[in-house]
Amino acid sequence: MKRIMIIGFMILLVFLQGCEKYEMVDYGEGGEINFMGRFQSGSKYYWSDDEKYLEWKRNFGVNKLGDSLLLDTMIVGVKIMGIKADHPRKVVLKSNPPKENALEVIFPEEYYVSADTGIASFKVLVKRPATQNVTYTTELVFDYAQSDFKAGTEERQVFKLVAEDKVSLELWGITEEYWEYEPVMFFGAWSETKMRYMITMLGCTNFEAWYYADDSFWEAIMGNILYETLEEYKSDPSNPPLLDENTGEWIEFPDLSELLG
Fold first, then answer.
1. Helix axis angle, 215-222 relative to 225-234, nearest 10°?
2. What is the pLDDT of residue 62?
3. Using 50, 70 and 90 to split pLDDT, how confident is the model at 12?
4. Residue 218: its pLDDT value, please?
5. Nearest residue to 37 via CA among 22, 61, 54
6. pLDDT tens digits, residue range 200-256?
């Protein structure tokens, strides 16, 4: 009986030692920080430690605000390894830009990980790329000299940002052949400048979906919106010219008031 008790005690001791080792690996001493990424499933976003999500991509050319969108907001997450603290801890981010085509970012506020929590998310403002049809990049990294944390997992210390300002028929969900088949009657000859104007004025990010299923299409047609707003724009000499890259002349839209009677 005594022997059984001794064996049982030894097994319990080994088990407790195993638990102690596990806790040290899982929680550590505290203070290590890593980036988190997020992904979308359906209409919801979820946070993940997977390295493949440590990247943010955006095309400023095709968006609801069109050329009016000068700044976009991205969300970056952080996760703390170690014991939770009973006080807020500061996180300072900085950019690590390439020598060419560096994407500019703004950190609009001070960032803190709240007390008694191990995760946080921060807003970062991203400037529209200065040149169209060029890919801009930068990296977000931790500024450990000014932060209350030290580096965590090596593979999760960099968050990459990629942005461009690009439009095309393909990105707009239509082919040139189809444009010449029917839409040309309502909008005239296609050009990139014209497409940018339509996106900005109408918030049309997917031409096919807008053309066939959106009530705003008929509102634009019946209201002769594109023709009239462009004429108003042209009447102000302070506005820069919107030139068709194919002809070098002002873009034009048909006056649909004549067509509609």
1. 60
2. 95
3. very low
4. 87
5. 54
6. 999 999 998 898 887 888 888 899 999 999 999 999 999 999 999 999 999 999 999
Q: Can you read off the two tokens belonging to residue 64?
A: 């609801």
Judge whether residue 163 has pLDDT over 90: yes
Q: Where are the domains of the chain?
A: 1-25, 31-164, 176-260
For 200, phi then psi, to 5°, come to -65, -40
Question: d(Cα 212, Cα 214) in Å, to the nearest integer?
Answer: 6
Distance CA(114)–CA(121), nearest Å, equals 11
Does domain 31-164 fall under CATH 2.60.40.2030? My reply is yes
Stretch (H or E) spanning 12: helix 2-27
Under 8 Å CB-to-CB from 85, ≥6 apart: which residues? 30, 113, 115, 116
Please state the rounded mean pLDDT for residues 26-34.
67
Do the beta carbons of residue 115 and residue 85 sit within 8 Å? yes
Closest-CA residue to 79 (of 171, 173, 182, 157): 157
User: Quick one: which of 232, 180, 177 has its CA closest to 201?
Assistant: 232
- Distance, CA of 136 to CA of 143 (rounded, Å): 22
